[in-house]
Amino acid sequence: MIQRESGTTVNTSIAEYLAEHEKLVYRISGVSMKPMLRQNKDLVVIRRYDGKGLHKHDVAMYDRGGSRRYVLHRVVEVYDGYYTFLGDNCISKEKNIPEGSIVAVLDSFIRNGKIISLDHPLYKFYVIVHCRMYPVRKVFLWLRYRASRVPFLKKIYRSILRKKLM
Description:
The chain contains 4 helices and 10 strands, in the order E-E-H-E-E-E-E-E-E-E-E-H-H-H. It is α+β, with helices and mostly antiparallel strands. The protein has a domain at 2-117: Umud Fragment, subunit A, CATH 2.10.109.10. It is globular, with a radius of gyration of 17 Å.
């Protein structure tokens, strides 16, 4: 379902909407693209995928398994006819995503009412640093995940989060 600015909703998929319109402004849900995109706060401007191929570090929306379950992640590996994707806040890569599953490409995003272009130097700097830090991030994210599963570490982790939020 797509919600219009007027508040009305349309029962259509993103792919169906983009078949008729070139762009869509959309409020994301989920934390897989943190810290770049914040759940229920930032808006993304996606444009219909033109089929001309993606490049490493592009952010694209694809249909996960033909179920109209769309995912917005970053391209980390490019092959002939398929891609490997990874969310900025994820450990595991999604491999062998066929080009036919790609629905849209990130055009820009809106944070606090300001449009952030993908051509902006700070965005480009973020992409380079964030992608090069993947091995370190992977270890950190794995440790954070493990700490949240051990009862006494879970308690410590939650208290640290509470202090951060205050």
